[in-house]
Amino acid sequence: MISDTEKHLCIAGVFGGKDSGISEASTAVFLESAWFLPNSIRRTSMRHQLRTDAAIRFEKSVDISNALSALQRAIALIVEIAGGTVCSEILDVYPEPFQKHEIDLNYQKMNEIAGKEYTKEQVNNILKSLTFEFISNDENNLKVAVPFAKNDVRRQVDVLEEIMRIDGLDNIPFTGKMAYTLPSNKEPFQESMKARIAQQLTGKGFYEIFTNSITNAAYYENQDELVKMMNSLSSNLDTMRPSMLETGLESISYNFNRKNTEIKFFEFGKIYKILESKFEETNMLALYASGNQHPVYWNSQQTSIDLFYLKGIVENLFSSMNLQFTQEQNLLKIQFQKRTIGLIQKVDAQKLKQFDLKQDVIYAEIIWDEVNLFYKKHHTKYTEIPKYPIVQRDLAFIIDKSIQYTDIQKCIKQVQSSLLQNIQIFDVFESEKVGKNKKSYAIKLSFYDAAKTLTDQDVENEMNKIVQSLESKLGVNIRKS
Questions:
Q1: Which residues pair with residue 273 across a beta bridge?
Q2: Quick one: pLDDT at residue 326?
Q3: How many domains does the chain have?
Q4: How far apart are CA 72 and CA 388, in angstroms?
Q5: For a designed S-S bond to 15, which of 11, 178, 272, 369 qualifies (C-beta 3.0 to 4.6 A apart)?
Q6: pLDDT of residue 481
């Protein structure tokens, strides 16, 4: 602030005050010529939302050495045009004069970068015309002081840019040869992994989206964990997203409003939170799906996307991680080595209403940093193509409705059968005939031995172990055909 002994007069370098302004009735004029710190001017201008010509000029920095000469010129014009009289001496307040920035230059290095042979005389003449001061100058090297007017010149390449600009870019000779450098390093692992997953998802009909990581704080209930913007672009873009869900729903809403209701999106992005007074930034992979699993034709049935559709997608993408899924109402927790690394959920009605969505949306998010960590240590192993036939057996049983399919899988795997290769559910049935609070499962078990053809007795032995485990641990009732 610029103030007198009684009150504030104006915001320095940004906005003038009404009381300190000049009118047609003014007879005494006080002139001030000042240089303002660019960073301070920008912060003040943005904080008060005052984008004035003065602020825009000063925040880019002006030549501090012109402050006195500009004042003297203004005085001369007032005296010449308005017939004023100077009634005081100039008071110059400049306690610690700025030192010009110094840069070391090498003639040969500049020629290598420019692709043109500049003579020492050419370089010197151009720099002198631009008011650069020479501190030292020998056969190979030159040291210059940068004029205050060129605040952006800080390195040797910046000085070279000034030389090339004055000499003319069109004067750089075209050699007729193409020079290129072969990459010394392979593509970073994280990027190659991301490209592989993106390729798989696009093959499954998903489209990649890129949404703004700056979003609206009003979307979120827990305001304490939000990373707020100090100089927000608008009231609707005032915080860094703590979740990928909301910015994705904005994109889905945009598509729904344009009659595109079959949605399969994926996005790689970052989320930002304040946890225990520390800022956290996490890489994420998000999947969004709504509508039908496949395009509807006259000879096909309509199948809506649900939790288990995205579960299948996630399992297929990261099959080597052996992920575990725990169901909680409309949500599946994705677990890896007993750590929760993501979730799959049906977006609740209140959140859908917030974005004016009238169709169910299934959302999955995975901590991408955890995936990268696993695959960086993981080595793919290859097995020989099966020489002997796979033997399959169907198993149908009745079980309590409260028991989940994941519990059945876990129970079967605990048998630790060396011959069991795969477990697949192919039927779930509920009715009064089955029993109250009961349901019927039908699963297909696949057995294989890499050393020989399995006999019926081999398979029966394994089936008996599995049946005994299911009966003793889960209380299943095996259905006889």
A1: 280
A2: 81
A3: 4
A4: 99
A5: 11
A6: 61
Distance, in Å, from the CA atom of 396 to the CA atom of 477, rounded to the nearest integer, reads 9
Share the mean pLDDT of the chain.
88
Q: Is the pLDDT of residue 185 over 70?
A: no
82 CB-side CA count, 13 A: 14
pLDDT tens digits for range 9-23: 888 888 887 777 888
Token representation of residue 226? 């939000």
Among residues 30, 2, 29, which one has the least CA distance to residue 15?
2
Verify that 269 and 369 share a domain, yes or no.
yes
Structure tokens at 466: 């599995």
132 and 238 fall within a common domain: no
Compute the distance between CA of residue 142 and CA of residue 135 in angstroms, rounded to an integer: 8
Q: Is residue 181 part of a domain?
A: no
3-state secondary structure of 419: coil
- In a domain? residue 92: no
Give the N- to C-terminal CA distance of the chain in Å, as an integer.
91
The two three-digit tokens of residue 132, written as one number: 């650069």
Q: Is 401 within the bounds of a domain?
A: yes
Residues near 288 by beta carbon (within 8 Å), at least 6 away in sequence: 248, 249, 251, 252, 263, 264, 265, 266, 267, 361, 362, 363
Same domain, yes or no, for 248 and 162?
Answer: no
DSSP 172: S
User: CA-CA distance, 406 to 327, in Å (whole number)?
Assistant: 9
SS (H, E, C) 90-145: CCCCCCCCCCCCEEEEEHHHHHHHHCCCCCHHHHHHHHHHCCCEEEEECCCEEEEE
**Cα–Cα distance, 432 to 429 (Å, whole number):** 10
Which structural domain range is residue 232 located in?
A: 189-377
For 400-435, how does the pLDDT look when each residue is reduced to its tens digit (9 = 90+)?
988 888 889 889 999 989 999 999 999 988 888 888
Average the pLDDT over 51-77 and give the result: 85
pLDDT tens digits, 241-291: 999 999 999 999 999 999 999 999 999 999 999 988 899 999 999 999 999
How distant, in Å, are the alpha carbons of 79, 209, 428, 429, 478 from that of 434?
A: 106, 46, 11, 8, 12
Alpha helix positions (H), 318-455: 349-354, 368-377, 405-413
